[in-house]
Amino acid sequence: MNLNIKDTFNTELPADPVRENTRRQVMQACYSYVKPKSTANPSLIHASNELAEDLGLTQDDLRSEEFISIFSGNSVVPGTNPYAMCYGGHQFGNWAGQLGDGRAINLFEVNHNNKQWALQLKGAGETPYSRTADGLAVLRSSIREYLCSEAMYHLGVPTTRALSLALTGDQVLRDVLYNGNPEYEKGAVVCRVAPSFIRFGNFEILAARQDKKTLRTLTDYTIRHFFPNIKEGSKEAYLQFFREVTNNTLDMIIHWQRVGFVHGVMNTDNMSILGLTIDYGPYGWLEGYEDGWTPNTTDRQYKRYRYGNQINIGLWNLYQLANALFPLIEDAKALEGILTEYRNNYSTKYLSMMKSKIGLFNYDENDAELLGRLEDNLQLTETDMTIFFRNLNRITKDSSTNEDFLNPVMDAFYVKEEVKGDILKKWKLWFTEYVDRLQKENISDRQRAEKMNEVNPKYVLRNYMAQLAIDAADKGDYSLLDEFFQLLKNPYQEQKQAEKWFVKRPEWARHKVGCSMLSCSS
């Protein structure tokens, strides 16, 4: 392999002086050097040809022994110094202190076509930040991360990427449901790729320890490499940096809401400073449209990270980042002003996004109310979000509201028999107003349908689909994994051979482990 390795994080930032791989509090450092754990019998399951090309890798590289050795953690590229990042975070609203890369090891950075990429192995063994865990990952969670990060990329959602998925040949003990019944599962490693894996928590831990010097060093580094339009080193620069992080975070969450994605564990250590979706644990896509749904078993009681609350949690997390950056800025009013902008921008951007989903592009003062009632109606009876919005483009300006008015979207209802009486009356009222509103649009039905199809995906990685791929892979069959990987490269396109995946969640998947809710360790 001929990679253009150009490390910055572990050459420009302070390192942990202790070289032993022991659990400890790491002070006045941004990372600790650590090597991946050797694996028993690594084998490559799948790799992203497209991403490989972006990194300067060839098809021959992907098939080489060198590739599988490096990206399973069995060997280290000469001249490189793998490391685990030090960061803290608020977990479920509470300060958790030092967290860090407990099962992620950063290998090196690559510069190709004037783009910088950091490559990281997830599940490559213990680090000083592993606490009581083993630092390993299993095939189940690795498939979910591998498929989802690439699916999100092709949906147009800001995200980390996945280069490769490999079996380690080792067995890993996991308690899937936290119910005291651990079982051995196949070990696996995913190579994750992003411009950077810096999180809100990288700044929080330094502020919490009152290490202003390292905080400034890290912030200047981040601005220099990832916000080059900002001139580093001044109060104004730090405020502009915070504003851009705020805007990027908002844009990311608006995209989540657009496609019905629920992150499941929006702790501050899982928030990318670049506004990328990061750490695919107990995520899920809405099956039935429900503001209160969370895919995380740990969040079952309070539903802090539910679909309808993600935008608020984004703001809460940004408050924590503002507190962390305050020692460099010392202007609470200016920071508050940027956070207020987030609230105001959210209202505007969310309305614009939702209007695009139902094909409204002109201004009308009643659009917010129309959309509000739509969201209420979608929760009157279980209604599949993806199917409803995708099929809504079948409504035209001259659609009638006779007895068959719901036919274009009827496939979205899980229990069609429930759409009667008061529910039917509310839908009829909404569709009547919607068709009237369409009259005010100055584009044709065909043009509107095309625009709607650009924001309403036909195919998303439903949890039951991921579980089917996992079940097959556990038996050594990776054909379904590849089928979904290829399918989700074109989520907005009609794919006749894949119509069987444009369906509601099957009944068998409603309460099956892995198909509805998952634990944080998944």
From TrEMBL:
ATP binds at residues 100, 102-103, 122, 134-135, 192, 199, 279. The active site is at 269 (proton acceptor). The keyword Nucleotide-binding applies. Mg(2+) binds at residues 270, 279. Its EC number is 2.7.7.-, 2.7.7.108. It holds the Pfam family SelO. Its cofactor is Mg(2+); Mn(2+). Belongs to the SELO family. HAMAP family: SelO. NCBIfam families: PRK00029.1. This is Protein nucleotidyltransferase YdiU. The lineage of its organism: Bacteria, Pseudomonadati, Bacteroidota, Flavobacteriia, Flavobacteriales. The gene is ydiU.
